[in-house]
Amino acid sequence: MLTDVDLPAPGLLWTRWAALSAAMTGIDRGELWSIDERGARRDDPDLGWARFALLDGRRAVLYGARHDQHAGTDPAADPLTGAPDWLPWAELTPLAESGRLGFVIWHESGRWSRVRYPHHHDDGTAELLAPLLSEQQTVTALRAAAPPAELRGLREVAAELLHAAIRGEVGAGHFDELLGESADLQAALSAAARGGIVPGTRPPRIEPGRRPPMRRVRLLSQGEHDRLVWAAMHEATELRRPAPPDTDELGALVHWLQERAPGGDGRCSLLAYADATSFSAQPGEHPPADRPGEERYAGFRRLTELVRALRRAESDPRYGRWLFLRVETSATKFRVQRCYDSWPAWWHDDGVSGPWRTNLQEEMEARGPQWRPSWTPLLDPEVAYRPTS
What we know:
Elements: E1 2-5, H1 10-26, E2 33-36, E3 39-44, E4 48-54, E5 60-66, H2 89-97, E6 103-108, E7 111-115, H3 125-128, H4 135-144, H5 155-167, H6 172-179, H7 185-194, E8 215-218, H8 222-235, H9 248-259, E9 268-274, E10 279-282, H10 298-313, E11 324-329, E12 334-339, H11 357-365, E13 385-388
Antiparallel strand pairs: 1-7, 2-3, 3-4, 4-5, 5-6, 6-7, 8-13, 9-10, 9-11, 11-12
Helix pairs in contact: 1-4, 1-5, 1-7, 4-5, 5-6, 6-7, 9-10
């Protein structure tokens, strides 16, 4: 099912994008807003990315994603459901299959449309395109490109640049007035020409695409796939394997914890998760204490080193390496619990953060097949997809 989207008409959206792209290029910030032969680009390291392309007639397509789209309850809706045949499928399909496509909006028959999301969801378009959604917002963004000392009185100059862009009559003088002498006027004018807002130029257009006969559609979002694996880890039980031998590395970790006992009585608790590339710790009943005057994070860095050293020392090519570790110490004793195959009850699950599936896959592949837990097949990326015509 589709729904309408309230966006400026494609031609108006394009001229605003082209004007802002040219101005940003003139102050050497063209990586944020740009135009090439495939259309307009938006790349914000904090927000996300977007692409906008014009086709023949009044057809257009806008697509992209927020950088945080996989966090929390990201929707599993296929953004290409019900999409028309003329979209640039060769570009969109691999993005959708890899979970990197957050939204697709197309313009046809005088209106913008997209798939209806299964629940309320902010796909990021309003935030990514905020400077382009009204003339006032674009003028404000253009004015902000000017040197700080010259901001007063430039709103009219920015508005004139935008109006000239709509008419296709942008010249070097517009950028000179707005950006000042320190700007690269030739670079700005070249960018404006690429956008088709300079006399004698036209905006680039892409050819209509062709829908593939078959493609994979994501049934599970990234977050839902993670939670499927994590739920199975909660239900799993530990396979019976020999306990690792005592090592110097275990002694070093226990000694460090006893010295860091928060009450000075040797009682200390460690709850940790580790794999080949990541490490995290949660506070137990008696978490390790920082020392007075100690550099910030010095204790955590040393703890990471000790846990990784122990994990290497206790690794076995058949049984694999543990994922979760719990150590409880007193002044004279210690107790260790290792979990190779399951998510222990003492490790808090917030439903959002947990072991990365790719890291878990690497861990499982390093074990003998008989020592892989029952949830291992769920790590296959194909679990999240179904084929469709």
